[in-house]
Amino acid sequence: MPGPTASHQGRTPLVPAPASPYGRPVDTDLRETHSAVLAMVGPHVYKIKKPVRLPFLDFSTVEARWEVAAREVALNRRLAPDVYLGVGEWRAPDADPDRPGEPVVVMRRMPDDRRLATLVSSGSSGNISGGVSGGTATHDELRAAIRAIARTVAAFHSRAERSPTIDTAGLPETVSAKLITDVEEARDIASGVLDTDLIDTVESLGRVYLRGRVPLLDQRVRDGLVCDGHGDLLADDIFCLPDGPRILDCIEFDDRLRWGDVLADIAFLAMDLDRLGAPDLATLLLADYGEFSGEHHPASLAHFYVAARALIRAKVTAVRVHQGERAAADLAQRLLALAVEHLRRGRVTCTLVGGGPGTGKSAVAETIAPTIDAVVIASDEVRKELAGLPHDTPAGASYGEGIYDDLHTEATYAEMIDRGRHLLEHGTSVVLDASWSRQAHRDAARSVALATSAELHELRCVAPPAVAHRRIAERSARRHTSDATIAIADAMTDTAEPWPTAFVLDTDAPLFVVTAAAQRSIG
Questions:
Q1: Distance between CA atoms of residues 98 and 96, nearest Å
Q2: Which region among 1-5, 203-207, 264-268, 272-276 has the lowest average model confidence (pLDDT)?
Q3: Taking the CB of the first residue and of the last residue of the chain, which one, N or C, has fewer CB atoms within 10 A?
Q4: Using an 8 Å Cβ cutoff, are 110 and 40 in contact?
Q5: CA angle, residues 430, 433, 435, in degrees to nearest 5
Q6: pLDDT tens digits along 53-91
């Protein structure tokens, strides 16, 4: 292929690049993506845009290709200034000299063996959390690479452009519209490649999640967490060099596809690590990014953005299938399945764990909460807080008296449910630990779950009276949040209103058995 030449149309001539400090490959290779052809020649890469028009980009005219090539160099120099050398021009020997040739993005060639995808997929990295087959050095190297990438992206986001216009990309209505657009485009190209039932599931679960998270997304915009990011962080385009990572190939053809929540940007790479079979690295990446950026998010939001990115990659991979790369069909389908998996893991749940004193409801609540990324809100603690008492200070009141009268009980449930509402709106699942002996209180909790698009689960703990009495007697011998006595427990049992919608847990069994049953009921 003839090399790039100076343009006869006013384009900037390409200045020859200095030798690569990372070695001078002499081999030649040709690679293809859905929108470009890349020729690796010696120490350089020459990238030519395909004259294609897709649902999400239009390179059909040479003028559009010149514009997007210039944008590619300028934007990617934000993260890899020594890699993107400039834009040259290719023209056939017999081409009309009065017409522009093809733009060629000229880059310094990166060593393939330092590509993040290669390092992760080589098999020598093993499982970060479970040891390494191939030596500790490889483990340490890969772990250091993930931290370096997280640090680099966090620094990039800290100085990235922000504006009221860019902020609109993080608004609930924009995020929702983007999800629907990606779903519709996936349907348009699904024929023979993507499972339409899975696409429907992505849309359904995504809509449910976003419907209840308006306060969360609005808050992140106010907190300045929306910027002009990279838009396409993939392990294939990141090179782990001795002096730090080089992150290439950001979205250049549509600014709006780079704009968004910083979590959505880093989640693209988390998704790709998961796709490569390294979910442990994805988890470490997000944790490291949070450490370096000071950004905090609920687990559910990370799952949503990983799913959204998997949907995008499924769509783009399906395009490659239609362009003749039939082997990519399996990957496209796996990416779509990954989107569904993360949306299911990111469900926001409101779980009521109830029952009388001594039935073990607090133990169940505390045990299941970590398994579903939930926060426990306990009525006993809320009641003491509202009364201005430390959690383990006895209130000295009988059933229906003092801080246990109707006025205090109503205030306790109202506060507990309100705290739950706030957490649910902001993407955090909750476990509400109380007796739930009154229908009105359960109805109030159901209303909050409905308003926040949270899945409601109701668990009622029961135990034989002798077992409950023994537990109450044992804890009365030590300082405890609950003030219930055996007499109070019996009175509460006698006055409890029926709770037919609850899943009944018999807690007269080992806690792990009870917890497993509770988890199965939640799903």
A1: 5
A2: 1-5
A3: C
A4: no
A5: 145
A6: 887 788 889 899 999 999 999 999 999 999 999 999 988
State pLDDT tens for residues 288-334: 999 999 999 999 999 999 999 999 999 999 988 988 888 899 999 99
| 202 token code pair | 């992505």
SS3 395: coil
Separation of alpha carbons 436 and 64, rounded Å = 64
Query: How far, in whole angstroms, is CA 386 from its chain's centroid?
Result: 36
Report CA Rg, the chain: 29
Please report the sign of the dihedral spanned by the C-alpha atoms of residue 94, residue 98, residue 102, residue 103. positive
Which strands form 84-90's sheet, in the order they lie side by side?
28-32, 36-41, 44-49, 102-108, 84-90
Q: How confident is the model at residue 186 (pLDDT cuts 50, 70, 90)?
A: very high
Closest CA to 171 of 217, 219, 209: 217
For 349-522, the fitting CATH number among 3.40.190.170, 3.40.50.720, 3.40.50.300, 3.40.190.10 is 3.40.50.300
Check residue 4 and give its pLDDT.
Answer: 37
* Residue ranges of the chain that CATH labels 3.30.200: 28-109
CA dihedral angle for residue 17, residue 161, residue 36, residue 105, rounded to 10 degrees = -20
In whole angstroms, what is the distance from residue 427 CA to residue 465 CA?
38
Largest CA distance in the chain: 100
pTM: 0.87
Taking the CA atoms of 72, 73, 75 and 81 in sequence, report the sign of the dihedral they define.
Answer: positive
Amino acid letter, residue 10:
G
Q: Are 151 and 157 in contact (CB under 8 A)?
A: no
Amino acid in position 230: H
Whole-angstrom distance, CA of residue 438 vs CA of residue 492: 10
Q: What are phi and psi of 10, to 5 degrees?
A: 85, 10
Instruction: State in words which class domain 113-127+135-345 has.
Output: alpha beta
The length of the chain is 523
CATH number assigned to the domain with residue range 28-109, chosen from the 4 options 3.40.630, 3.30.200, 1.10.3470, 3.30.420: 3.30.200
